[in-house]
Request: fold
Amino acid sequence: MSETGIKAQIDQAFRQARLGRDEPTKMVIGMLKNKVLTELKSGSGAVENDELWLASIAAYSKQVRKTIAELEPLGPQAAPALAEARFELEFCEQFLPKKLDADATDALVRKLAEDNGITDKKQIGRLMGLIMKNHRDEVDGDLARLAAEKALS
Reply:
């Protein structure tokens, strides 16, 4: 594994967090390391590499996004937990491939629908299949679904 691999970056961030007594960063790195370790011990035959780290970080990010969505409507009493969750998400996102924003996702989905002659709402499954088959790493699934619904309405 290269020294610029994700594990090396995480280890470096952890050393810096320890030296700087940065508890929030140490906590999120601990959670990520735990996810990777759990997968390695699961008997699935997983090997510790950048793909496993990326998958673990992506899964954790998705979990944190759900938490944020649940906390946002709760108002001021949820502010500390919300700030912590946003920090964790921001930390994780630095390791994940960048996704297209809503406008770029809309444009991609419209082009795919046009290029493939998909105009009927009943074909949304086909359109989503094309999007996820060829652009899974570029798009956020929720944004893609909204864009597909908009393109076919």
